[in-house]
């Protein structure tokens, strides 16, 4: 990870409420470690995402939207760096939803073509 700032580590007393939240956290840390963006760039983008949500009347007063905003900020970073545009991300979300709905309980979810 670039040395401008260090990525936080989860606090043991506050574990993630859902596995996808931990995965979203790990994706941001990994992409920063790989040099896609610095942690300072990440915190600025995430902060701007939170500010836009507040301005739109969607404050995260109880913490329930925090990780959704985290994912939105990841999408913004991917689009800003031409890694994936909004249409591609939406198509992947739809493909994932189709795949998990079609997967029998207990079986691994597999995307078509992947």
Keywords:
0% strand; 114 residues; mainly alpha
Structure overview:
The structure is a single chain. The chain has 114 residues and is mostly helical. It contains four helices and no strands. The chain is globular and about 40 Å long. The mean pLDDT is 87. This is Nitrile hydratase accessory protein.
Summed up, what is this model?
This is Nitrile hydratase accessory protein. This protein is an all-alpha fold and 114 residues long. Helices cover 56% and strands 0% of the residues.
Topology overview:
Blueprint (H helix, E strand, L loop, with lengths): L18 H15 L5 H17 L10 H15 L5 H17 L12
Helix pairs in contact: 1-3, 2-3
In whole angstroms, how far apart are the ends? Answer: 29 Å
| DSSP strand tally | 0
- What's the order of the H and E elements? HHHH
Shape from CA axes? globular
Query: What value does the Rg take, in angstroms?
Result: 16 Å
Strand count, sense and barrel status of the largest sheet are: none
This entry's quaternary arrangement is single chain
| Helix content class | 55-70%
Q: Overall pLDDT, averaged?
A: 87
Please report which band the strand proportion falls in: under 5%, 5-15%, 15-25%, 25-35%, 35-45% or over 45%.
Answer: under 5%
Structural class: mainly alpha
Low-pLDDT sequence parts = none
State the helix count: 4
């Amino acid at each position: 990870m670039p040395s401008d700032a260090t990525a936080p580590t989860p606090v043991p007393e506050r574990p993630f409420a859902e596995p996808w939240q931990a995965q979203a956290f790990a994706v941001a840390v990994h992409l920063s470690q790989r040099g896609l963006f610095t942690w300072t760039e990440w915190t600025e983008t995430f902060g701007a995402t939170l500010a836009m949500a507040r301005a739109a009347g969607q404050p995260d007063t109880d913490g329930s939207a925090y990780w959704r905003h985290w994912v939105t900020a990841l999408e913004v970073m991917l689009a800003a760096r031409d890694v994936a545009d909004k249409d591609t991300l939406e198509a992947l979300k739809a493909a994932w939803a189709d795949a998990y709905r079609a997967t029998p309980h207990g079986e691994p979810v597999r995307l078509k073509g992947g």
